[in-house]
Design a protein that fits this description.
The radius of gyration is 16 Å and the shape is globular. The protein starts with a helix and ends with a strand. The strands form two sheets. A five-stranded mixed beta sheet has the order 2-4-5-7-6, covered by helices on one side. By secondary structure, the chain is of the alpha+beta class. It has helices spanning about 1-20, 30-40, 45-50, 70-85, 145-155, and strands at about 30, 55, 65, 90-100, 105-110, 160-165, 165-175. Helix content is about 35%, strand content about 25%. Helix 1 packs parallel to helix 5 (about 145-155), helix 2 crosses helix 4 (about 70-85) and helix 4 packs antiparallel against helix 5.
Length: about 180
């Protein structure tokens, strides 16, 4: 219980910082593909423990975007970590990056139980948790996707989600540099 409360306090402090006027540092150009791969490698132990296949569709050339690299790293981490937790053991975890009309589209998907359609409008709300039976992780506090949405809003970017036929996919945008 102490560890759970400690994590909750840390998340609340992080949210407070994100919502402050000074939340986003100076936006710089960086390769979003490099960040996505770095986060994927950092989660290798969790991926292996769940027996997941990883499907990456990343461009050969760097995809330079504008943003705050640490914040975008947090977005990628939260989305990939959730995708791992909610994947069925032995399932597939995917990440892809495409570009179109001045935007990079980063998609994170997993195979497993889908999010009920009536929950999709609420999953980015603070403290919202869908049916806990979707995950073996019962320790989350419902802030991960709220943090993702807060960071992307600060970047003036968007995120969307689809969840059907055993596949859930989150796609967010970043402005190309």
């Amino acid at each position: 219980e102490t560890r759970r409360l400690s994590r909750l306090v840390q998340r609340m402090l992080e949210l407070s910082r994100l919502q402050s006027d000074e939340a986003m540092g100076v936006q710089v150009q960086f390769d979003v593909g490099e960040i996505a791969l770095r986060v994927l490698v950092s989660l290798e132990t969790k991926i292996t423990a769940r027996g997941l296949d990883v499907d990456t569709k990343l461009p050969d050339a760097p995809v330079f975007v504008w943003g705050e690299p640490d914040a975008v790293t947090q977005v990628c981490y939260n989305l990939l970590d959730n995708a791992i937790k909610f994947s069925c053991p032995g399932g597939t975890l995917g990440i892809s990056i495409t570009t179109k009309a001045g935007k990079a589209y980063v998609a994170v998907r997993n195979s497993g139980e889908t999010i009920p359609q009536e929950q999709l409008d609420f999953i980015f709300d603070r403290f919202h948790k869908t049916d806990s039976s979707r995950s073996e992780d019962r320790e989350g506090v419902g802030l991960g996707l709220y943090i993702v949405k807060t960071i992307l809003n600060a970047h003036r970017e968007n995120i969307s989600v689809t969840s059907k036929d055993g596949v859930t996919e989150f796609t967010f945008t970043l402005t190309l540099a």
